[in-house]
Amino acid sequence: MALRDFFGRLRGSSAQQPVPEQPQADPPAPLQDAPLLEPEAPPAETPPPEAEAPAKTGWFARLKAGLSRSTAKLTDSVVSLLHKRRLDDEALEELEETLITADLGVAASRRIVEGFRRTRFGKEVSDEEVKAALADEIAAILEPVAEPLEIIPARAPHVVLVVGVNGTGKTTTIAKLGRHYAEQGLKIGFVAGDTFRAAAVEQLQVWAGRTSARFFAPSKPGADAAGLAFDALTAARADGLDLLLVDTAGRLHNKSALMEELRKIIRVIRRVDEAAPHSVLLVLDATTGQNAVQQVKVFKEMVDVTGLAVTKLDGSAKGGVVVALAQEFGLPVHVVGVGEKAEDLRPFAARDFARGLMGLD
């Protein structure tokens, strides 16, 4: 099922497979708490309220409002630069520099400027024409990566390994995804695989209760995450769960230790289901700007990342980094978030994002 079909009911189930004997768990790789690529003091993840009032505005209005800081940073600079000015070589060079400083990245900025050069070189354009043209160029970059997260109920359960640096919103994203699917009648499981971070385990347990999800917790702090994932998947198959969302650690000070832990989780759960994990979702915090690009590079070295979730677009003026990510990696952007409520995480739509980023309706 596509994530955009939140309000369509998923159907289908798979036959149960025999469950192999549980392997002997290897001792967990030692991890510390000092971050490398994460913020020095990651903001605490706040759970969505237990009861929420109906949305007063549509999704596009919330997306546009959430991108308002990024819009101001980008459009104010561009309009000021090109207002009543011909698009000559000097103007286009300055435009490229402006787009780079707005976190669109070098490659995407150059591509956009080359589009302007082909279609508008030597012309004087109005402010609205500039914004509309930029939105079109940005949408063209984003459209190939605007893909929904496909949940295949026949896999029963569909396993999503959720990875990312601590503080990006992994646990919150799991909660929001789980809530949406639970509302469609799916049986959900949460696996608290960040066993070294007590707060993550506690938060996920609270949200599991609010979504009626089955919760799989470590037996003790620092327990082997691979063994927990094995037990959770075995139980999920026996119980007929439809979707299993697996949280993971995100400390990158010692990349080799985290890499081994993630690879071990994958190796062990494949003893239960050789196709698992069916999706590897990398959660990125938009407020980190170009640091998100580095995080994608690091996690792609560790695991086969299949798609991205970009959170906290409302938290800074760095929303343009989504364009940089699309241009550089071409990975599917499944969902984006502009707030703390469950309804503020939605499927990524290229045209809506591009027009919202430029402040257009």
Please state the structural category: alpha/beta
Q: What general outline do the C-alpha atoms trace?
A: elongated
H/I helix tally: 12
How many DSSP E strands?
Answer: 8
Architecture overview:
Helix content is 43%, strand content 10%. The chain contains 12 helices and 8 strands. The longest helix has 16 residues, at 89-104. It is elongated, with a radius of gyration of 22 Å.
Q: In short, what is this structure?
A:
Helices cover 43% and strands 10% of the residues. With 361 residues, the protein is α/β, with parallel strands linked by helices.
Descriptors for this entry?
361 residues; alpha/beta; 12 helices; 8 strands
Reconstruct the topology from this structure.
Blueprint: H1 59-66, H2 68-82, H3 89-104, H4 106-120, H5 127-142, E1 158-163, H6 170-182, E2 188-191, H7 198-211, E3 214-216, H8 225-239, E4 243-246, H9 255-269, E5 279-285, H10 291-302, E6 307-311, H11 321-329, E7 333-337, E8 345-347, H12 350-357
Helix pairs in contact: 1-12, 2-3, 3-4, 4-5, 4-11, 5-12, 6-7, 8-9, 9-10
